[in-house]
């Protein structure tokens, strides 16, 4: 198929960006979306132009690197997949495809379609872990039985790939689904309970500090999440958060 | 020549690691704060090492090429992680895991290292559960297990088809905890360009900041490289796009010896190649072989009709199907090790029984399992893998069998390390897939995650400390030493040279060509004539690259094409060493199959008399041939047998 690509080009974080139109021809329906961009990039290099920069790595939907806003939707028109898992059979011959980076204040553009998602790491560093000693001797793994249903729910939450589609989809650029997925994973497991109160408050405070917006229950995040993580985790996070706030104030060391 | 000393501790096999730990030197807490460690790579081995070392009190700097440590390719491992817990009461033990691993590697790995790996495997599971890794559980709340190739027990722990993701996120959370505490500093979007050696010891690195293009210098008392494998030398592989061999290659050129470079794992269950625009291959987890049965048509005319699209697999009668793994290997059936399964698939396809439009595919069929267990059970076990398959191939694997074919997946070879995971450069350590140490000539499924975490959580914290114990008097070196100047200048010259070629071919053009040479001559089956030919072809391609490659843009800013070019420069050299190593090894073992050396039934034929050694290569400059050293493999505690899965 032949396509027109309207792609956001921006030389660096400081420079002003703009849309540029490109034509690609003879694209196979079986090619992946990123392979289609590879073809475009090879043709640009042959002409001595700089290729379009975009984040990508595993190309099988798990690393969370790819992050394209395609025709107004994070990860494009299909549900439950990342950009790299989308194939050109989802598009029609002659179509114009608009490709943009994630647009959210806490995710500044680095170049073209590449954004800086360090803010997500900072939120995890604020409390997205269980404080156990690394290495050394720990209790036997089977010493603590965990109900299968709780483990499965925790796994649903833990399957978040940290791509940022939830933020990109949200009109408030809220990171609630991302934060809730981690809070919920640990809240559901007995290992996570000892620090549950501190964790949720620290992560929410960091999220606010970094400039992510609030949740107004549009559920756009769930609709666009490539791992289809449920907004019910946001409900659990809110419950954890209010519970923590209502209980006795934490003693600061 | 540096002496190759594996430094294996004395004593019976089961006591070696303990004996080591009893005798190792320690660093007291006040001194730990004064010692700097650099870790390169944020996958299982790197993240686990940085988190452990940070927790112990060392000053750690960790570097990754991605925007976040969580993107490292460990994240994509699907099936599981082995441990000798024997929760399933099927006769497992540390010794059996050891035995399966050393046999699976076709007796080309070091006894003491493999035993230690099996020994610490149980602690890994304890560590991960304590971190909140949501492993699959039984209804009683205890951990569930499944089976992987090369084993007759169920010892594989898993988190759906996303075990690597969950283990990496566990290590990432431990790392995040240390970053929060300030004991570890994380540097994202950095590509290591070279190692800085001062007075014979590893003392720092030159990094390229991928956002600004600037070259940066960092000092440390010791450097750990945990940068994964080099399977992308084949262009098409299951590795991620940024996975590369450059750090291993740069340290090799700085004096670290390279072990068994030709030992490559070709994974039997990948989605077949479908077009020349393809950028990578997708793995379908080995766990699928628990319930899937592999077959091709028994009649060649059926296979041909399928290739032409005139016949559907579901309309082939049971008696006209050849379940060739069950036929050839009744004891292990569909769960033979990866090298055996891959070669068997190639044998059927080469004989004309392959399916799919190219004839280069076999079926992995779940119809029996769905009939036996119900679709919901299969969906619960492999749902995400089936979805992934359907998105790529546009066929529903619940209704029609999957098509699979072998693809490059893992490199057992890597930087040579001793028992302490130290390379031949003092102060330089290598962990995870980047080293050569534990898998011999073939890695068993679910053992890569085990090794990465074993090295990071349970080995380096001891051995690195032992090295640093006599470094406590060394003050941090300033990074304006002549050694730093020269190394940075060398890097700058390489970059300038690349940017100035200004030819008319893309980097991918050369990478793709190299991949084809490697696949045809240094791939699943190799012979003398082909290997000799490949060395010439690679040299020619390298010369062509340096005349005609084109890299647009500037070097002093983000330049994705330059990043690729820097990797392909190294692949173009590395491929040649791989071919040389394969040519030298005149035997077949594990994933290394030399057509000249096979049994009457077509199985790999080892030559223990002449080749029971690790091939250790030393770089002697661009104009000289590398020198081969041999580390003899001594089996004191293991009966070395012809591997049989029949």
Radius of gyration of chain B: 24 Å
CA-based gyration radius of chain A: 21 Å
Please provide the ordered H/E string of secondary-structure elements of chain A: EEHEEEEEHHHHHHH
Structure classification of chain B: alpha+beta
Strands of the widest sheet of chain B, in order across it, are 5-2-1-9-17
CATH fold field value of the domain at 267-409 in chain B: Flavocytochrome C3, Chain A, domain 1
Descriptive overview:
The complex is a heterodimer of chains A (253) and B (646). Chain A is built from 8 helices and 7 strands. By secondary structure, chain A is of the alpha+beta class. Chain A has 2 domains: 3-111, Beta-grasp domain (Ubiquitin-like (UB roll)), CATH 3.10.20; 117-246, Fumarate Reductase Iron-sulfur Protein, Chain B, domain 2 (Orthogonal Bundle), CATH 1.10.1060. A 5-stranded mixed sheet of chain A has the order 2-1-5-3-4. Chain A starts with a strand and ends in a 7-residue tail after the last helix. Chain B is an alpha+beta fold and 646 residues long. Helices cover 37% and strands 14% of the residues of chain B. Chain B has helices at residues 16-23, 29-32, 44-56, 94-104, 111-131, 163-181, 246-253, 300-307, 324-328, 338-350, 367-373, 375-393, 448-468, 482-501, 507-521, 528-548, 560-584, 608-611, and strands at 36-40, 59-63, 81-82, 156-157, 184-187, 190-198, 201-209, 215-219, 222-225, 258-259, 264-270, 293-297, 321-322, 362-365, 402-411, 414-415, 428-430, 613-618, 627-632. In chain B, the strands form 5 sheets. A 5-stranded parallel sheet of chain B has the order 5-2-1-9-17. Chain B has a 5-stranded antiparallel sheet with strand order 11-15-14-12-13. Chain B has a 4-stranded antiparallel sheet with strand order 16-10-18-19. In chain B, β7 and β8 (215-219) form a beta hairpin. Chain B starts with 15 loop residues before the first helix and ends in a 14-residue tail after the last strand. The interface between A and B is large, with 80 and 86 residues.
